[in-house]
Amino acid sequence: MYRIIHVAVLAISLLLQLFPIHAENDSFTCGFSYVGTHDKNAMQNEKYPFHNDHSIHLTGWKNDLVYAKIAIEASEEMEVSISHGAFKNETDTLNDSQIEYGLLEEANASLGIGYDASIPHVSIPEIITDTKEFSIPTNQTKYVWIRITLPNDQKEGVYKGCFIIQGNSQKEELNVVVSVLPYTLENIEDEYSINLWQYPFSSLRYYDVLQNEEAFSKKHLDVLKEELKLYKEAGGNSITVTVLDEAWGHQTYDDYPSMVDWIRNPDYSITFDYSKFDAWVNLCMECGIDARIDTFSILPFDNAVTYVFEDGSRVRYPMRVGSDEWKDVWTYFLTTYIEHLESKGWFEKTFIFIDEREMNDVIEAIQLIKSIKNSKGESLKIASAINRVPNNESIYDEVDYLSIAIAATPHQDPSFERFIQHRHELGLETTLYNCSTNYPNAFTISEPDESIWTMEYMGINQFTGYLRWALNAWNENPYQTLDYQHFEAGDIFLIYPDYKDATSPKPRRTIRLDMIIYGLRNSMKYQYLKENLPSSLKSQFEKEFEEMDRSYGYFNSYGSMVGSEQASITISEEVLKQESLLNKYARLLKLKRIMEG
Predict the structure, then answer these.
(1) In DSSP terms, which residues pair with 31 in a beta bridge?
(2) Which structural domains are found in the chain, ordered by start?
């Protein structure tokens, strides 16, 4: 009889967790919702984990981050608050600073491209805040984003804690279990080349507090430092610098002038002012972003340089690539640029970029760069981003850093895999890059799972890193709308500015950036397990991961690259499968080590 009663009690307890009973006067419902989708019905949809659950089990490593999301739906307009209880195991407790959470603010995102008011817009919860008290309108849903940090010295074990939601007289408790495994991740920047192009001039225009400030003034640098902190946190280790105006043909809302002034003197000689360049590079390096300096560009979109005259006027001067004049001008600049880099100790870190240009122009540029040497007889390193698959052109063996658009990478193609391996053997970097017109992606309207999938695809396919355009090229006012004339909503930035009138601006993360970080860490877990699993497990491990599925997108009626419903399901299913496999093999490795003593 006792056993029957015991089993019955356990069964009732389980049912209450899965289908909690609320009092008749309850005015909100809440539960964990899947981090990989914006779907407002995800808390009721069984294809996602944790749908409407009051408990969640997260697994992390040391030097790791784990994420969760809570959905709160109100039956009447009300104020709610969220707090957390202690997270602890038998001997240890997580510090409050390790547990970050707050309301996800919504962004107004166009489903298309341009400023056409007839294009449908949607509200997407994507701006991460630390707001813990907020209002929920009647019959609407708000989301709380959770990030728990597990540092290098986090002790292995199972930590139990909770989040408490209160509104009116109602109080709900959501339970969290965090299992910390006994493995330590490297820092992202030590494993991958993460290159999110930076736009330091956007903040100079956007913030009221920076009006009438000179670029890279002390006040401007203080604001930029906060943006760089988020970039560094994401593993960013490349510095974007411009040595001429509008290297990309003014694709952004703000101007992107040169950080080096080409000064045309009265005697027609040219001198170069590196003061803004030096201020920016020094700031990045002070923030720990110091692996690479990416120079844009010997091939600007209009093949023009800008001369600054004595009266301050700026005049664009176009040249034909490969002409004698073009060679003379760029030979002179690169010679002085190399001298300046050597004087600062930056030459070894510096690459000059060739960005999505015609092959004939690429060949001309590479030949010129290779012909100009420093004091040790070395030429600048060359970087290039391309949106086509190389066709065995030997010229790419001259490119030290090559980034290939995800739309151009063939899936499970042996010839492309050989190309990647060939570059590995030469000691050259090959990264994956993403921007407008690609799928999967990291637009505001993209499902968060797309960012996770992209990073896992990058790691499994042996790319050495990730490039994305861009980190912080804000449109006019992203808090009003994300509409932009050239690209999908959110394509031009991964972090939000603070509000325009902020006196000490602090930028805000997006869930898109967090899911990139999440996916990068999963890729690092894959690499760790691949290197450390015993041979008895390794072959099956590699087989299961190499079967990674892929979906392709299409242009919708409004010009945006999106995925079909089935494509989104495929991406989510693949992300969930990868997560399950990582946890499975991590526990098998732990068991193997325990058994071996």
Answers:
(1) 71
(2) 29-184 (2.60.40.10), 188-257+284-301+354-368+380-555 (3.20.20)
Determine the residue type at 303.
N
* Residue 69: closest CA among 211, 176, 223: 176
Burial class (CB in 10 A: 0-12, 13-18, 19+), 588: middle
The per-residue pLDDT for 595 is 87
559: left (phi over 0), alpha (psi -120 to 50) or beta: left
The answer to whether the pTM exceeds 0.85 is: yes
User: DSSP states of 518-582 as a string?
Assistant: HHHHHHHHHHHHHHHS-HHHHHHHHHHHHT------EE-TTS-EE--HHHHHHHHHHHHHHHHHH
First and final C-alpha spacing in the chain: 42
Single-letter amino acid, residue 83: S
Q: How do residues 30-53 score in pLDDT, each as one tens digit?
A: 999 999 999 766 656 677 776 668
pLDDT tens-place string over residues 233-269: 999 999 999 999 999 989 999 999 999 999 999 999 9
Q: Residue 358 has what pLDDT?
A: 85
Q: Which residue shows structure tokens 């790419």?
A: 396
Opening angle at CA 460, ends 458 and 464, nearest 5 = 50
Q: What is the mean pLDDT of the chain?
A: 93
